[in-house]
Amino acid sequence: MQQQHEWIFSRNKRLSAMIHADSFTVQKTPVVICCHGFTGDKIGANQLMKNIAKALVVAGFIAVRFDFAGSGESEGEFAQDTTVKGWREDLKNVIAWVNKVPEFEGLPIYLLGRSLGGLVVLSHTQDSIAERLALAPVVHPVANFQTEILGPGLWRQSLSGRPIANFLGKGFSIASNFVQDLAENRYEPQQHSSPLLIVHGNQDAIVPLSGSEELFREYQGEKEFKVIEADHVFTGKHEELTSLLTGWLATKIG
């Protein structure tokens, strides 16, 4: 397996990205771009995103995992640079970068996103995306952040224009522009023609399983929905999860 680090420019900042491939000269090998979740990074909880990338390569894919601006090793500040609007722009720029790499020219692009990264993948409107995979995706961001992720008190505080801190049991702080962006733009998953795989844990206490159930019912394209015994970050379930992902992908390129 080969891997290399790249810097990708977005929002006047450098995004840290890792490219994983068995070979950079294989024809028709799909490129899977992996998007992490809120307060996460391209490595992931218990190395989830890294393990997914490694499994994708073993299964014959190219994987690109990156940090959104202000997260992980990317430039920027989490508190100021984290918004869904900004993350969507970052993903757009990563896709544009992939399309410009000579070795990747003409390869199909798949998008994989976990949690808030799942919302970014599902709301990305580019028609050329071949497949989408959503892991415990945020489907109703306003309700989800107001109720489970931030809680009503921090939500109101942020909506009033004040910074907030200490949510999800972590020491992060974030400016009010994150909540205000959610409230103003009302991001929701979009309908796409591309096939969609949804995977959600039935022990998820952060992002409700009901959102994925609703998404599956309403999505009009080809779709599949898997519920597994897992929490929000799929603790202890990486092998089962990656087997599901690579198995589903294999049916799309076989």
Q: Any low-confidence stretches, pLDDT <50, length ≥5?
A: none
Give Rg in angstroms. 17 Å
The helix content, as a percent range, equals: 25-40%
Structural class: alpha/beta
Name the average pLDDT.
95
Oligomeric form: single chain
Strand order of the largest sheet: 1-2-4-3-5-6-9-10
The rough form would be described as globular
User: Would you count the extended β strands for me?
Assistant: 10
Task: Tell me the CATH superfamily.
Answer: Alpha/Beta hydrolase fold, catalytic domain
Classify the beta-strand content into a percent band: 15-25%
Under CATH, the topology can be stated as Rossmann fold
**CATH level 1 name:** Alpha Beta
Cα distance, first to last residue?
22 Å
Q: Do you know the CATH architecture? A: 3-Layer(aba) Sandwich
- Number of H/I helices: 9
Q: How many domains, in number, for the residues? A: 1
Mind describing the biggest β-sheet? 8 strands, mixed
Order of helices and strands: EEEHEHHEHEHHEEHEHEH
Protein name: Alpha/beta fold family hydrolase
Domain Serine aminopeptidase S33: 30-130
Keywords: Hydrolase
InterPro entries: AB_hydrolase_fold (IPR029058), FrsA_esterase (IPR050261), Hydrolase_4 (IPR022742)
